[in-house]
Amino acid sequence: MEFVDLKAQYRRLKPRIDARIQTVLDHGRFILGPEVEELEQRLAARIGARHAIGCASGTDALLLALMALGVGPGDEVVTSPFTFFATGEMITLLGARPVFVDIDPVTYNIDPAAIKAAITPRTRAILPISLYGQPAEMDTINSTAERHNLAVIEDAAQSFGALYKGRHSGNLSTIGCTSFFPSKPLGCYGDGGACFTNDDALAEAMLELRNHGQSARYLHTRIGINGRLDTLQAAVLLAKLEIFDEELVARAEVADRYTALLKDAVQTPTVLSDRTSAWAQYTIQVDERASVERSLREAGIPTAVHYPMPLHRQPVYADMGLPLGTFPHAERAAARVLSLPMHPWLQPAQIEQICEGVKAAVGSPITR
Question: What is the pTM of this model?
Answer without folding.
Answer: 0.97
